[in-house]
Amino acid sequence: MASKLLVFLYSCILVLTFSSPVSAQTITFTDPVVINADNYAKYFSQYKPMAPMIARATILSAGDYTNQVTNLNNIKIADTAVEFWIGWRNFADMQSLMTPAQVTELKNLGVTTITYNPEDKPESDDFLQKTGDANPAVQFVKFARNNGFKAMLVPFGYVLINDMVPDNILAAIYSEGLDGFIVQEQNAIETNCVLDRVTRINEIVIKHETIAGRSLFTGVQVMAGQCATGDSLIEQCGEGPKTYTYQHCDLYIDELSSHGLIDMMTVWAMSSAGDQSDFLSVFRAGSETFPTPTPTNKPGDANGDNLVNGLDYLIWLSHFGQNVSGPANGDFNNNGVVNGADYLVWLSNYGL
User: Signal peptide: which range, if any (predicted)?
Assistant: First the structure.
Protein backbone atom coordinates (compact mmCIF):
# COMPACT_ATOMS: atom_id res chain seq x y z
CA MET A 1 0.00 0.00 0.00
CA ALA A 2 1.45 3.36 -1.00
CA SER A 3 1.95 5.77 1.88
CA LYS A 4 -0.67 8.47 2.28
CA LEU A 5 1.31 10.24 5.01
CA LEU A 6 2.15 13.78 3.90
CA VAL A 7 4.52 16.13 5.72
CA PHE A 8 3.04 19.63 5.70
CA LEU A 9 5.85 22.08 6.49
CA TYR A 10 3.45 24.93 5.77
CA SER A 11 0.34 23.68 7.54
CA CYS A 12 -2.84 25.61 8.21
CA ILE A 13 -6.53 24.91 8.70
CA LEU A 14 -8.23 25.00 5.31
CA VAL A 15 -11.90 25.57 4.68
CA LEU A 16 -12.44 24.75 1.03
CA THR A 17 -15.40 25.53 -1.18
CA PHE A 18 -15.91 23.59 -4.40
CA SER A 19 -18.13 24.51 -7.31
CA SER A 20 -16.87 22.61 -10.33
CA PRO A 21 -19.18 20.62 -12.63
CA VAL A 22 -18.62 16.98 -13.48
CA SER A 23 -17.00 16.04 -16.77
CA ALA A 24 -16.55 12.67 -18.45
CA GLN A 25 -13.68 10.65 -17.00
CA THR A 26 -14.13 6.95 -16.27
CA ILE A 27 -13.10 5.60 -12.88
CA THR A 28 -13.63 2.07 -11.59
CA PHE A 29 -13.26 1.31 -7.88
CA THR A 30 -11.11 -1.83 -7.69
CA ASP A 31 -10.20 -1.92 -3.99
CA PRO A 32 -11.96 -4.27 -1.54
CA VAL A 33 -15.59 -3.79 -0.56
CA VAL A 34 -16.53 -4.84 2.98
CA ILE A 35 -20.10 -6.04 3.57
CA ASN A 36 -21.89 -7.75 6.47
CA ALA A 37 -21.32 -11.51 6.52
CA ASP A 38 -25.00 -12.39 6.97
CA ASN A 39 -25.83 -10.40 3.84
CA TYR A 40 -22.92 -11.92 1.92
CA ALA A 41 -23.96 -15.43 2.96
CA LYS A 42 -27.44 -14.84 1.56
CA TYR A 43 -26.40 -13.25 -1.74
CA PHE A 44 -22.90 -14.62 -2.31
CA SER A 45 -23.58 -15.66 -5.92
CA GLN A 46 -24.38 -12.05 -6.83
CA TYR A 47 -21.31 -10.70 -5.03
CA LYS A 48 -18.68 -13.16 -6.24
CA PRO A 49 -18.21 -11.39 -9.61
CA MET A 50 -17.52 -8.15 -7.72
CA ALA A 51 -14.32 -9.32 -6.04
CA PRO A 52 -12.30 -8.35 -4.13
CA MET A 53 -14.85 -8.61 -1.32
CA ILE A 54 -14.51 -8.84 2.46
CA ALA A 55 -17.25 -10.41 4.58
CA ARG A 56 -17.36 -8.91 8.07
CA ALA A 57 -19.17 -10.84 10.79
CA THR A 58 -20.42 -8.08 13.08
CA ILE A 59 -21.13 -9.21 16.65
CA LEU A 60 -23.88 -6.92 17.93
CA SER A 61 -24.27 -8.91 21.16
CA ALA A 62 -22.70 -11.96 22.80
CA GLY A 63 -25.53 -14.11 21.48
CA ASP A 64 -24.61 -13.21 17.89
CA TYR A 65 -21.26 -14.94 17.96
CA THR A 66 -22.27 -18.51 17.03
CA ASN A 67 -24.59 -17.39 14.22
CA GLN A 68 -21.98 -15.10 12.73
CA VAL A 69 -19.28 -17.78 12.78
CA THR A 70 -21.78 -20.10 11.06
CA ASN A 71 -22.20 -17.45 8.36
CA LEU A 72 -18.45 -17.38 7.81
CA ASN A 73 -18.33 -21.17 7.54
CA ASN A 74 -21.14 -21.15 4.97
CA ILE A 75 -19.42 -18.43 2.95
CA LYS A 76 -16.12 -20.28 2.98
CA ILE A 77 -17.78 -23.35 1.48
CA ALA A 78 -19.32 -21.27 -1.32
CA ASP A 79 -16.55 -18.74 -1.97
CA THR A 80 -12.97 -19.50 -0.99
CA ALA A 81 -11.65 -16.21 -2.41
CA VAL A 82 -13.42 -13.83 -0.02
CA GLU A 83 -11.50 -12.37 2.94
CA PHE A 84 -13.04 -12.52 6.44
CA TRP A 85 -13.19 -9.91 9.20
CA ILE A 86 -14.96 -10.07 12.52
CA GLY A 87 -16.32 -6.97 14.25
CA TRP A 88 -17.13 -6.22 17.88
CA ARG A 89 -18.98 -3.41 19.65
CA ASN A 90 -18.04 -4.49 23.16
CA PHE A 91 -14.50 -5.33 24.22
CA ALA A 92 -15.60 -7.37 27.26
CA ASP A 93 -17.67 -9.64 25.00
CA MET A 94 -14.76 -10.01 22.61
CA GLN A 95 -12.34 -10.87 25.38
CA SER A 96 -14.65 -13.46 26.96
CA LEU A 97 -15.79 -15.15 23.75
CA MET A 98 -12.50 -15.20 21.84
CA THR A 99 -10.84 -17.95 23.87
CA PRO A 100 -7.61 -19.49 22.54
CA ALA A 101 -9.67 -22.26 20.95
CA GLN A 102 -11.95 -19.78 19.24
CA VAL A 103 -9.03 -17.66 18.08
CA THR A 104 -7.67 -20.79 16.41
CA GLU A 105 -11.09 -21.51 14.89
CA LEU A 106 -11.31 -18.00 13.44
CA LYS A 107 -7.81 -18.20 12.00
CA ASN A 108 -8.61 -21.55 10.41
CA LEU A 109 -11.66 -19.92 8.84
CA GLY A 110 -9.43 -17.24 7.36
CA VAL A 111 -10.29 -14.27 9.57
CA THR A 112 -7.52 -11.70 9.12
CA THR A 113 -8.84 -8.61 10.86
CA ILE A 114 -10.85 -7.59 13.92
CA THR A 115 -12.81 -4.33 13.92
CA TYR A 116 -13.88 -2.42 17.01
CA ASN A 117 -16.99 -0.25 17.00
CA PRO A 118 -17.38 1.32 20.48
CA GLU A 119 -20.95 2.57 20.14
CA ASP A 120 -22.55 1.35 23.38
CA LYS A 121 -22.33 3.27 26.64
CA PRO A 122 -20.42 3.29 28.92
CA GLU A 123 -17.79 1.83 26.60
CA SER A 124 -18.15 4.65 24.06
CA ASP A 125 -17.45 7.17 26.84
CA ASP A 126 -14.48 5.18 28.11
CA PHE A 127 -13.06 5.16 24.58
CA LEU A 128 -13.18 8.98 24.44
CA GLN A 129 -12.03 9.68 27.98
CA LYS A 130 -9.84 7.02 29.56
CA THR A 131 -6.11 6.79 29.04
CA GLY A 132 -3.62 3.95 28.94
CA ASP A 133 -4.81 0.42 29.59
CA ALA A 134 -8.08 1.75 31.02
CA ASN A 135 -9.12 2.66 27.48
CA PRO A 136 -11.00 -0.24 25.82
CA ALA A 137 -9.61 0.64 22.37
CA VAL A 138 -6.05 0.27 23.70
CA GLN A 139 -6.98 -3.14 25.13
CA PHE A 140 -8.69 -4.10 21.86
CA VAL A 141 -5.59 -3.36 19.78
CA LYS A 142 -3.36 -5.23 22.21
CA PHE A 143 -5.64 -8.26 22.10
CA ALA A 144 -5.85 -8.25 18.30
CA ARG A 145 -2.13 -7.86 17.74
CA ASN A 146 -1.18 -10.40 20.44
CA ASN A 147 -3.39 -12.95 18.71
CA GLY A 148 -2.10 -12.29 15.21
CA PHE A 149 -4.98 -10.22 13.82
CA LYS A 150 -4.97 -6.82 12.19
CA ALA A 151 -6.93 -4.18 14.14
CA MET A 152 -9.32 -1.60 12.68
CA LEU A 153 -11.20 1.15 14.55
CA VAL A 154 -14.79 1.86 13.42
CA PRO A 155 -16.42 4.39 15.77
CA PHE A 156 -19.56 6.42 15.08
CA GLY A 157 -18.87 8.72 12.13
CA TYR A 158 -19.31 11.94 14.06
CA VAL A 159 -16.57 10.86 16.48
CA LEU A 160 -13.91 11.08 13.76
CA ILE A 161 -15.55 13.82 11.71
CA ASN A 162 -15.76 16.11 14.75
CA ASP A 163 -12.32 15.19 16.16
CA MET A 164 -13.79 13.96 19.43
CA VAL A 165 -10.92 11.59 20.31
CA PRO A 166 -8.14 13.45 22.18
CA ASP A 167 -4.76 13.31 20.47
CA ASN A 168 -3.09 11.61 23.45
CA ILE A 169 -5.65 8.79 23.31
CA LEU A 170 -5.17 8.38 19.57
CA ALA A 171 -1.40 8.29 20.08
CA ALA A 172 -1.77 5.54 22.70
CA ILE A 173 -4.02 3.48 20.44
CA TYR A 174 -1.72 3.80 17.44
CA SER A 175 1.35 3.04 19.55
CA GLU A 176 -0.13 -0.41 20.21
CA GLY A 177 -0.27 -1.11 16.47
CA LEU A 178 -3.76 -0.08 15.26
CA ASP A 179 -3.74 -0.67 11.51
CA GLY A 180 -6.32 1.91 10.51
CA PHE A 181 -9.89 3.17 10.71
CA ILE A 182 -13.20 3.39 8.87
CA VAL A 183 -15.29 6.57 8.86
CA GLN A 184 -19.03 6.01 9.17
CA GLU A 185 -20.56 9.21 7.85
CA GLN A 186 -24.24 8.46 8.49
CA ASN A 187 -26.32 11.51 7.52
CA ALA A 188 -23.32 13.44 6.12
CA ILE A 189 -23.95 11.40 2.96
CA GLU A 190 -27.33 13.08 2.57
CA THR A 191 -26.38 16.62 3.54
CA ASN A 192 -22.89 17.43 2.19
CA CYS A 193 -21.40 17.95 -1.26
CA VAL A 194 -18.92 15.35 -2.49
CA LEU A 195 -15.83 17.50 -2.44
CA ASP A 196 -16.63 18.92 1.00
CA ARG A 197 -16.74 15.31 2.23
CA VAL A 198 -13.51 14.45 0.42
CA THR A 199 -11.79 17.43 2.02
CA ARG A 200 -12.88 16.32 5.50
CA ILE A 201 -11.71 12.74 4.94
CA ASN A 202 -8.40 14.08 3.71
CA GLU A 203 -8.00 16.13 6.91
CA ILE A 204 -8.85 13.10 9.06
CA VAL A 205 -6.36 10.87 7.21
CA ILE A 206 -3.58 13.43 7.50
CA LYS A 207 -4.21 13.95 11.22
CA HIS A 208 -4.31 10.25 12.07
CA GLU A 209 -1.29 9.33 9.94
CA THR A 210 0.66 12.20 11.48
CA ILE A 211 -0.17 10.98 14.99
CA ALA A 212 0.55 7.35 14.06
CA GLY A 213 3.76 8.27 12.24
CA ARG A 214 2.99 5.84 9.43
CA SER A 215 0.59 5.04 6.64
CA LEU A 216 -2.77 3.63 7.74
CA PHE A 217 -5.35 1.35 6.13
CA THR A 218 -8.40 3.58 5.71
CA GLY A 219 -11.96 3.38 4.45
CA VAL A 220 -15.41 4.94 4.51
CA GLN A 221 -18.85 3.41 4.96
CA VAL A 222 -21.78 4.05 2.63
CA MET A 223 -25.37 2.84 2.58
CA ALA A 224 -27.67 2.48 -0.41
CA GLY A 225 -30.61 4.38 1.07
CA GLN A 226 -28.56 7.38 2.14
CA CYS A 227 -26.66 7.42 -1.15
CA ALA A 228 -29.93 7.51 -3.10
CA THR A 229 -31.11 10.43 -0.97
CA GLY A 230 -27.78 12.15 -1.51
CA ASP A 231 -28.42 12.18 -5.26
CA SER A 232 -30.69 15.17 -4.64
CA LEU A 233 -27.52 17.23 -3.95
CA ILE A 234 -25.89 16.56 -7.32
CA GLU A 235 -27.05 19.63 -9.21
CA GLN A 236 -27.03 21.85 -6.12
CA CYS A 237 -23.37 20.97 -5.52
CA GLY A 238 -22.33 21.32 -9.15
CA GLU A 239 -21.78 17.57 -9.49
CA GLY A 240 -24.41 17.02 -12.13
CA PRO A 241 -26.42 16.58 -14.16
CA LYS A 242 -27.76 13.49 -12.43
CA THR A 243 -27.70 10.57 -14.83
CA TYR A 244 -27.91 7.46 -12.62
CA THR A 245 -28.91 6.30 -9.13
CA TYR A 246 -26.22 6.44 -6.40
CA GLN A 247 -24.21 8.91 -8.50
CA HIS A 248 -23.50 11.15 -5.49
CA CYS A 249 -21.75 8.35 -3.56
CA ASP A 250 -20.09 6.98 -6.69
CA LEU A 251 -18.44 10.34 -7.32
CA TYR A 252 -17.40 10.47 -3.67
CA ILE A 253 -15.76 7.04 -3.67
CA ASP A 254 -14.09 7.78 -7.01
CA GLU A 255 -12.59 11.02 -5.69
CA LEU A 256 -11.33 9.39 -2.49
CA SER A 257 -9.85 6.47 -4.39
CA SER A 258 -8.23 8.51 -7.17
CA HIS A 259 -6.49 10.72 -4.60
CA GLY A 260 -5.26 7.73 -2.56
CA LEU A 261 -7.29 8.56 0.53
CA ILE A 262 -8.98 5.17 1.03
CA ASP A 263 -7.96 1.54 0.65
CA MET A 264 -11.47 0.06 0.79
CA MET A 265 -15.13 0.95 1.21
CA THR A 266 -17.68 -0.68 3.48
CA VAL A 267 -21.40 -1.19 2.97
CA TRP A 268 -23.61 -1.52 6.03
CA ALA A 269 -26.27 -4.03 5.03
CA MET A 270 -27.69 -6.79 7.20
CA SER A 271 -29.41 -9.73 5.49
CA SER A 272 -32.74 -7.93 5.84
CA ALA A 273 -31.39 -5.10 3.66
CA GLY A 274 -31.66 -7.34 0.60
CA ASP A 275 -29.40 -7.88 -2.38
CA GLN A 276 -26.90 -5.01 -2.70
CA SER A 277 -25.43 -6.06 -6.03
CA ASP A 278 -27.11 -3.26 -8.00
CA PHE A 279 -25.70 -0.76 -5.53
CA LEU A 280 -22.20 -2.28 -5.63
CA SER A 281 -22.19 -2.55 -9.43
CA VAL A 282 -22.27 1.26 -9.63
CA PHE A 283 -18.85 1.45 -7.96
CA ARG A 284 -17.36 -1.45 -9.87
CA ALA A 285 -18.44 -0.04 -13.26
CA GLY A 286 -16.63 2.84 -14.96
CA SER A 287 -18.42 6.09 -14.19
CA GLU A 288 -18.19 9.83 -14.50
CA THR A 289 -16.07 11.82 -12.08
CA PHE A 290 -14.54 15.25 -11.74
CA PRO A 291 -12.48 16.92 -14.49
CA THR A 292 -9.19 15.58 -15.80
CA PRO A 293 -6.41 18.14 -15.21
CA THR A 294 -5.41 20.21 -18.25
CA PRO A 295 -2.62 22.77 -18.64
CA THR A 296 -3.19 26.30 -17.34
CA ASN A 297 -1.29 29.59 -17.03
CA LYS A 298 -2.93 30.84 -13.81
CA PRO A 299 -0.71 30.19 -10.76
CA GLY A 300 -2.24 27.49 -8.57
CA ASP A 301 -4.85 26.42 -11.17
CA ALA A 302 -4.23 22.76 -11.96
CA ASN A 303 -7.41 21.81 -13.84
CA GLY A 304 -7.60 24.74 -16.24
CA ASP A 305 -10.97 26.11 -15.10
CA ASN A 306 -9.42 29.56 -14.44
CA LEU A 307 -10.13 29.23 -10.70
CA VAL A 308 -7.83 28.40 -7.81
CA ASN A 309 -9.84 26.33 -5.38
CA GLY A 310 -10.14 22.99 -3.62
CA LEU A 311 -10.09 20.96 -6.82
CA ASP A 312 -6.59 22.26 -7.55
CA TYR A 313 -5.57 21.46 -3.97
CA LEU A 314 -6.67 17.84 -4.44
CA ILE A 315 -4.61 17.58 -7.64
CA TRP A 316 -1.59 18.96 -5.79
CA LEU A 317 -2.28 16.55 -2.91
CA SER A 318 -2.51 13.49 -5.17
CA HIS A 319 0.94 14.27 -6.65
CA PHE A 320 2.66 15.42 -3.45
CA GLY A 321 6.23 14.13 -3.25
CA GLN A 322 6.32 13.03 -6.89
CA ASN A 323 8.90 14.08 -9.48
CA VAL A 324 6.47 15.33 -12.12
CA SER A 325 6.32 18.58 -14.03
CA GLY A 326 3.71 21.20 -14.81
CA PRO A 327 0.72 22.83 -13.11
CA ALA A 328 -1.61 20.04 -14.30
CA ASN A 329 0.27 17.77 -11.88
CA GLY A 330 0.37 20.30 -9.01
CA ASP A 331 3.90 21.48 -9.86
CA PHE A 332 2.97 25.15 -9.82
CA ASN A 333 6.55 26.47 -9.85
CA ASN A 334 7.62 24.13 -12.69
CA ASN A 335 10.71 22.77 -10.94
CA GLY A 336 9.88 19.11 -11.57
CA VAL A 337 8.83 18.16 -8.05
CA VAL A 338 5.53 18.60 -6.19
CA ASN A 339 6.18 19.83 -2.66
CA GLY A 340 5.40 22.49 -0.07
CA ALA A 341 6.60 25.30 -2.34
CA ASP A 342 3.82 24.44 -4.80
CA TYR A 343 1.34 24.38 -1.93
CA LEU A 344 2.34 27.97 -1.10
CA VAL A 345 1.70 28.99 -4.73
CA TRP A 346 -1.76 27.46 -4.50
CA LEU A 347 -2.45 29.03 -1.10
CA SER A 348 -1.38 32.52 -2.17
CA ASN A 349 -3.75 32.38 -5.14
CA TYR A 350 -6.63 30.53 -3.45
CA GLY A 351 -9.98 32.12 -4.27
CA LEU A 352 -8.63 34.24 -7.12
Answer: 1-24
Q: How far is CA 329 from CA 137, 303, 315, in A?
A: 40, 9, 6
As a whole number of angstroms, the distance between CA 76 and CA 58 comes to: 16
Q: How far apart are CA 275 and CA 30, in angstroms?
A: 20
In the chain the domains, ranked by start, together with CATH numbers, are 25-289 (3.20.20.60), 291-352 (1.10.1330.10)
Residue 2 is predicted with a pLDDT of 40
Contact 327, 302 (CB under 8 A): yes
Q: Which of 271, 278, 213, 239 is nearest to 40 (CA)?
A: 271
Contact at 8 Å (CB) between 135 and 91? no
At 145, give phi and psi (nearest 5°): -70, -40
Contact 133, 139 (CB under 8 A): yes
Cα distance between residue 66 and residue 94, in whole Å: 13
Return the half-sphere exposure (C-beta side, CA atoms, 13 A cut-off) of residue 229.
11
Where in the chain does DSSP place strands (E)?
Answer: 23-27, 33-36, 53-59, 83-88, 111-116, 150-153, 180-184, 217-222, 264-267, 287-289
